[in-house]
Known about the structure:
The chain crosses the membrane at residues 87-106, 112-133, 154-176, 182-205. This protein is mainly alpha-helical.
Amino acid sequence: xxxxxxxxxxxxxxxxxxxxxYYDVQTELVDHLASSIEEKMSTSNIxxxxxxxxxxxxxxxFGFSDLVGQKEMEVAIKGRNLxxxxxxxxxxxxxxxxxxxxFLVSYKAFQIASLASVIYSFYALIIIFNIILxxxxxLIKRSIKLPLLQFKNIYILSSSVGxxxxxLQVFFNLSLSDLANWxxxxxxxxxxxxxxxxxxxxxxxxxLSNQQRRLYPEDFK
Length: 221
C-alpha cells in the first residue's frame, strides 16, 4: 500500500518531533519508515499510525539518536577525506604547477621584502583566507531553508596550520623570525602549504554545496 503525500509529510513531522533537525537525515529516515510502513500495512492489515509506532520501536529505547550520531560520524569522515583528496591533488598535475608558481613567487617576494613585512603579510594572509572561508560558509548556510547535517560542522580544516605554527612557538620557542633567519626557504614552503590548504578547503565547500543542491534541491532558496 503506497503512502499518500499527507502521510509522508506526517513522517517528516514525526522525525522532527523526535528531535531529528537535519533535513537530509529526516529524508533518509522518512524513506526507511515509509518503506517499512507500507510493507506492514500490506501484510498485517493495520493502519498507518499503528504501523508507524511498530516500526519506530525497532529503533530501540534511544529512538533515532543512535542513527543521527552515526550519520554525524560519517559526515565528519567524509569531510576529512574530501579535504585530504583535494589537498593531495595539488601535488599532481595540473595543480602542482600552481603550487610551484605559488612557491616561486613567494620565495622571490620574501627575498625582496623586509622580514617584518614578510611576517605581517604572512599573518594577514591567514586572516584574509579565514574571512573568505567564513563568509563562504555563512552564504552556504543562508542558502538553505532547513539545516543539513552535511553543513552542521563545517569548519576550516586548513586553519589548523596556524595551530601548528603556534605549537612551534610554544614548545620549541621558535618564531617566524627564527625560521626566516635559520632556514630562508622555510617561509615560502609554509606559505605555499597554507595557501593550497585554503584552496583545498574552498574546493571542498564548493563540492559539498553542489552535491547537496543536487540531492536536496527543494531545501535550497
